[in-house]
Amino acid sequence: MSGPPVSRRRLIAGAVGLAGAGGLLGIADLARAAAVDSANATGRLRVGYLPITDAAPLLIAHADGLYPRGVVGPAKPVLFRSWASLAEAFISRQIDVAHLLMPMALQLRYGLGSGVRVLGWNHTNGSALTVAPHIVDLADLAGTQVAIPFWWSIHNVVLQEMLRAHGLRPVLRRSASRADRTVELIVMSPSDMVPALANRSIGGYVVADPFNAAAQLKKIGRIHTFLGDVWRDHACCVLITRDDVIEGRPEAVQSLTDAVVAAQLRIDANRRTAAAALTGGKYLPQPEPAVRLALTYPTPPYRYAHPEWAPQRVGYQPFPFPSFTQRLVEAMNETVVDGDRRFLRRLDPARVHDELVDDAFVRKSLERQGGPRTFGLSAEPTRTEQVQPL
Q1: Where is this region: Disordered (predicted)?
Q2: CB of 390 within 8 A of CB of 229?
């Protein structure tokens, strides 16, 4: 059962946390958004995205006409430049559906009290730690700044597990020290990371593609570790909507989920075609070679610790495993963030999945595509999380 809409006062209060966590819009912008009549006059679901390969299922569904008429408008999904601005639009009801960082979905629901619900996974893997050319070992990051896209992100969670495994300590809002083996973490929009690495103002960044592929092609940095080489087939972005949308338009939510799942299969069937469909000024601003590389990685950029995991491969598999949600909540309790993390203390990791995730729609979508086996899953998908910081 969903609660009442988030109040304007709570939206504005939430903007403090979002802006402090790397938001680009801030309090004034969210206050204006909260004052706008956000009633959806068309009744169609409005889709938002960040210009990264993680968004590909939502975008290919639009490009290939998979959204049924009347469910999603014919206009392109709305592009946002930062996670904070996307989240602000979502909780102020300017958009109804988006791909969102899984830890951020947790923070929105339990930290801000918004009615976010996860419908399924948008993708797995697809992110990496990219470093300056002189960085060889992870220990070389001591005394440097490393950029992350958002505090509430799998990037921050996995990076900190890696740092701790190498005896490094993340610090916030103070300079890193090589002698103290500290690394300063800063939030930066993905589009700013490549030039920051090029001018050596940061030692590295951890982010979704195609920004890692872009650094490789520009020869300004190199991929040090795919996050899928640390946490096997982890979910990064998930497909989200709100409780009120599910209650008010369940048929539309099902149709949209069907379209996204079908798009995932199409991407996996022909990644080069998908790269062409996403680029050229259509959905992603990055050049086609970078997006194509991000979707394929034909040549290993480093010696994988777990080659059998295929850590370089961004996966488009929609089923949301409860084991991942539980392990993520546990890891978030060990992760340093610049923001209010008190809500984590109230969470039972074993119960969060059932409260946050509504997998009824994706289960139906899987059956309509031939069942879980179409995606290489068992009839009743289960798994054990494999996390091995390098």
Answers
A1: 370-390
A2: yes
Q: Is the pLDDT of residue 36 over 50?
A: no
CB 267 within 8 A of CB 64: no
Mean pLDDT score across all residues of the chain: 91
Q: In the beta sheet, which residues pair with residue 171? A: 184
Alpha-carbon span 274 to 267, nearest angstrom: 6
**Spatial distance between the Cα atoms of 226 and 304, rounded to a whole number of angstroms:** 8
Q: Identify the helix (H) or strand (E) that includes residue 190.
A: helix 190-198
Distances (CA, A) of 164 to 40, 161, 169, 187: 46, 5, 6, 19
CA distance 121 to 357: 10
Whole-angstrom Cα distance, residue 361 to residue 303?
A: 39
Torsion sign, CA atoms 72, 75, 76, 77 = negative
DSSP code of residue 110: I
pLDDT at 73: 81
Say if residues 224 and 129 touch (Cβ distance below 8 Å).
yes
Q: How many helices (H) and strands (E) does the chain have?
A: 15, 11
Q: Give residue-wise pLDDT tens across range 69-100.
A: 999 988 899 999 889 999 999 999 999 999 99
**Residues 373-379: contacts with CB under 8 Å, at least 24 apart:** 374/265, 375/264, 375/265, 375/317, 375/318, 375/319, 376/317, 377/317, 377/319
DSSP-derived letter for residue 364 is H
Distance in angstroms (rounded) separating the CA atoms of residues 206 and 236: 12
Q: Tell me the C-alpha distance between 178 and 217, whole Å.
A: 30
Q: What is the chain's Cα-based Rg? A: 20
Q: Are 207 and 130 in contact (CB under 8 A)?
A: yes
The terminus-to-terminus CA distance of the chain in angstroms comes to 42
pLDDT digits (tens, 9 = 90+) for 17-27: 454 444 434 43
CB 336 within 8 A of CB 170: yes
Report yes or no: 379 and 274 within 8 Å, Cβ to Cβ: no
Whether pLDDT at 253 is above 50: yes
Closest CA to 349 of 323, 317, 316: 323
- Reported as a single tens digit per residue, the pLDDT across 265-302 is 999 999 999 999 999 999 999 999 999 999 999 999 99
